[in-house]
Amino acid sequence: MTRLVPTAVLAVFLTLSGALAASAQSIDETINGIFASSTGWFVSLIFSNFPGTSFPWIVGWLVIAATVFTVYFGVIQFRAFGHAIALVKGDYSDPNDAGEVSHFQALATALSGTVGLGNIAGVAVAIGIGGPGATFWMILAGLLGMASKFTECTLGVKYRNEYANGTVSGGPMYYLTKGFAERGVGGGRVLAILFSIFCILGALGGGNMFQANQAHAQLTNVFGEYPGWITGVVFAGIVFAVIVGGLKSIARVTEKVVPFMGVIYVGTALIIILMNYDKIGWAFGQIFAGAFTGLGVAGGFVGALIQGFKRAAFSNEAGVGSAAIAHSAVRTKEPITEGFVSLLEPLIDTVVVCTMTALVIIITGQLVADPNTGNYLLNEAGTAIQTVGDTSGVALTSAAFSSSIGGFKYVLALAVILFAFSTMISWSYYGLKAWTYLFGEGKTQELIFKVIFCLFVIIGAAASLGPVIDFSDAAIFAMAVVNIIGLYVLMPIVRRELNSYWSRLKSGEIKKFN
Amino acid sequence: MSEKFVVGYDGSDVAKRALDFAVSRAEAQGGSILIVHVLEWSPYSFLTPQEIEERHARRTEELERAEKALMEPLKATISAAGVPVETQIKYGHVAKTLCDVAKKEGATQMFIGRDGDGGLSSRVFGSVAGSLVQVAPVPCTIVP
Fold first, then answer.
1. Which tops the pLDDT comparison, A4 or B73?
2. Going by C-beta distance under 8 Å and a sequence separation of 6 or more, which residues neighbour residue B66?
3. Which end of chain A has fewer beta carbons closer than 10 Å to its terminal beta carbon, N or C?
4. Helix, strand, coil: what percent of chain B each, to 5?
5. Angle formed at CA B16 by CA B12 and CA B22, multiple of 5 degrees
6. What is the CATH number of the domain that holds B8?
7. Hey, what domains does chain A have and what are their CATH numbers?
8. What is the pLDDT of residues A371-390, one digit of tens each?
9. CA–CA separation, B6 vs A286, rounded Å?
């Protein structure tokens, strides 16, 4: 009898695991189906076009806002650029404040939340659909986005909540409430609640499911096909250990390795570009020609423009409001200095890192063009450009890098996983801040959100790319809808801060310490 | 002009020996003691969003703890011996911060202990005493 029990248990286990393996693929499919059908309406609302055009209104919304801020603050991205660098170098840091978070640390942490899959997978999506011309619009959107980021991060610091225990909570939900009240404009509270809801969705979408999804795609690219929920469970376990279990060691290792991976990534891209130095001129030619003609991509040059703007916004998050949450925890006497520092983010993220990815994909000839017309050929469905290995997203980037440096796909897989992980950690924090704004600060409230966050990691890894990427975009852009309304109302306050600071800087009242 | 001695202090046994040595010199020469405790800190390290949020609270805690546990007992005993004593708690790179304080306060000598560990880590990363030998702005006594 006693000998029978283990055998029976083993038999049951074997049967179960057999059944599980058989149903694994269908688990993925089920999750996928439910996901696509339950989020479709939200996606179509956010990405609906201006009446009578094929131009999504949300893309116009972001670009117009970035342009307005650029003009309103007198091209602040170039005027304050040198000062921003001086701030990050610590030239204006009081030595007596040593031990507090430095501008460099704030920038590095905010960057590790934004530099990630958007720069690797997102750019590949943009180039794959919009052609090389998308790069031009991406760079332009990055440059304009610097002004949006400057505005939101200044406000984030100015209107944060400081608690008795020395911690702070900040972000759009706080400046929407407090800033609107200060200006005597109604509706701030409603916008703040809306923003928080969208921020939670964005944290679960772009900040979580998209990351898990692309990390899984990269893993299957290296190790061969296997069910997504396995990646999901492993990732969810690690994220759980960090954000719930307080396993700081993992987070610390990631925070140290991520900047290092970023440097390796950009360095490798530069090497590949230099290896093909004779094609650099041609690649820029393709980028400019594609920007205004489309070179045969779906939707022509408007298609290229939409893809470029969309991916830039998704990658650098300017105008979205997430950076305002990240930067608001920094202690500084002048809120505007955080604004100056943050305007470097879209520059590094989009203008430098995204452009590197784009150049590598273009230069290594991943996109299939018609040798007679020079136009790009579309795939069978007519939705994207044909690629050499029929790849898209992160797999396209991987193919581009590996075609020059064999074996780089392993390094890229590691980079993707680490980027995905650090972005998840950052977004779990943004989502948490929105959650506690809605439900109050407290350990129980925090725990509920963190557990939900981990569950969505599994869903994200199991779902196919289409529905996930659509929902991720939609949720993150929905944050921008609310946030930018707030930025328009509050921009005179930022200008007052800017003028006051600038005149004190010029008069020498604000001194350099080093 | 009265002599001012900067003593790097971290609560270790060697730091205590260095301090005792400096106090005995100060007594003999009629000098004063400035004890400096440096908390290792780089403004270029990487932090998680959570750590950034908690940083100010942590710093306040660290300063209070260092003041209570390290500095206050020392102040009492050294003042009782009749030697004027001041203390400072700083954040930064240890050797560099000690030098900055010495310059700023017009110190005439520096004292520091060394643990005598000639192991691999100090060969690779250097030691505080080793760096001070190279860069100290005033005569520096290293107490074994």
1. B73
2. B37, B39, B89
3. N
4. 50, 20, 25
5. 145
6. 3.40.50.620
7. 88-507 (1.20.1740.10)
8. 777 777 777 766 777 777 77
9. 65
Answer with the residue of higher pLDDT: A249 or B138.
Answer: B138
ipTM: 0.82
Interchain contact, A99 vs B48, CB within 8 Å: no
Each residue's pLDDT tens digit, A138-196: 999 999 999 999 999 999 999 988 888 777 888 999 999 999 999 888 888 999 999 99
> Model pTM greater than 0.80?
yes
CB contact under 8 A, A98 and B41: yes
* Side chain identity at residue A125, one-letter code: V
- Write the CB contacts of A46 (distance below 8 Å, at least 6 apart in sequence): A56, A58, A473, A474, A477, A478, A481
What's the number of domains chain B is made of?
A: 1
Q: Which of B41, B46, B54 sits opposite A255 (nearest CB)?
A: B46
Within 8 A of B51 by CB-CB distance, chain A residues are 248
Residue in B51, B52, B94 to test binding to A, most A beta-carbons within 10 Å: B52
Put simply, the answer to whether A255 touches B55 (Cβ < 8 Å) is no
Q: What is the extent of the structural domain holding B69?
A: 4-143
Q: Give A399's contacts (C-beta < 8 A, 6+ positions apart).
A: A366, A387, A388, A389, A391
Q: Which residues contact B22 (CB under 8 A, 6 or more apart)?
A: B5, B7, B33, B109, B111, B141
Rounded to 10°, the helix A4-46/A443-462 angle is 90
Q: Who contacts A368 (Cβ-Cβ below 8 Å, separation ≥6)?
A: A376, A377, A385, A386, A387, A388
